[in-house]
Amino acid sequence: MHEVAIVNDLFRIVLDVAEKEKLKKVDKVHFQLGKMMQVVPDLFKFAFDSAKADTLAAEAELEIEFLPVRMKCRQCGTEFELKQQNFQCPDCQGMDLDMVQGRELIVKSIEGE
Ligand SMILES: [Zn+2]
User: Fold this and answer.
1) How far is the CA of 49 from the centre of ligand 1 (A)?
2) Among residues 10, 14, 27, 102, which one has the fewest Cβ atoms lying within 10 Å of its Cβ?
3) Quick check: helix, strand or coil at residue 81?
């Protein structure tokens, strides 16, 4: 269950930021997760709920935004959203692609007081 490892990493960032901002309490945390990371929302939420216990974020609400996987063709430069694992450029049918989005694990915002 790699959700636990991801949550632990992200949660460390949340607590660092909360400390720097001198927050007494974290109300809401907004994460952006690339779809390629294949995070299961229920498992992520479960891991988040256990990580937040007895911290500044004990009552924090969780918001997850999934970022679509985007590829860029090395031949013609077209960028497109990857759907159904179709690893082919829609313009030139090239198969030489770079992933430009999809592996993100980002703390987008933290709300608190
Ligand atoms: Zn192309």
Assistant:
1) 43
2) 27
3) strand
- Residue range 81-95, pLDDT digits in tens: 998 777 899 999 999
At 34-64, the pLDDT tens digits run: 999 999 999 999 999 999 999 999 999 999 9
- Name the pTM for this structure: 0.89
Q: How far is the CA of 13 from the centre of ligand 1 (A)?
A: 38
**Domains of the chain from N-terminus onward:** 3-112 (3.30.2320.80)
